[in-house]
Amino acid sequence: MIDYRQAVPSDAPGILALLEEIMEHHGVVPPEPERLSAVISTIIAACDHMFLVAEDGDDLVGMCTLVFSQSTWSTAPVCELQDVVVTEGHRRAEVGRGLMQAAEEVARVRGCSRLHLLAEYWNLDAHAFYRSLGWAEKSCLYFERDLRADPPGLA
Fold this sequence. Notes:
Structural class: alpha+beta
Distance between the termini: 55 Å
Helix content: 25-40%
Radius of gyration: 16 Å
Order of helices and strands: EHHEEEHEH
Oligomer: single chain
CATH superfamily: Gcn5-related N-acetyltransferase (GNAT)
Strand order of the largest sheet: 1-2-3-4-5
Number of strands: 5
Shape: globular
Number of helices: 4
CATH architecture: 3-Layer(aba) Sandwich
CATH class: Alpha Beta
């Protein structure tokens, strides 16, 4: 049986492994384990972020990150889901569905007016999964600026 719960500090190694798995799936080289572990510890201790984990016995088999913020448009809190991942061996076994339901329950309890997430355009399996749960696709362009690079004109 899969249990869904908020992560605790002892979950950090399992969360690290899950994040490395999703980053590899997306073709991203994970940060150094020490740096990523520090971020995991910060999120576990934060009040505006939360890891939800799916646990099968003693093993973490899925997780997602919830990021809470205040919306000026709805005048209520909103929640962005990030890092939604289920280990390959547990995919298509309702773990993801349970994780998403647990995230929705947490967001409702915290008074959120909506949940949102981003999915890579090429990740068609994820798109189908979210649609099967009643999520609606929105039209929007996502812009990003890498602040680690030198600002234009200063290089």
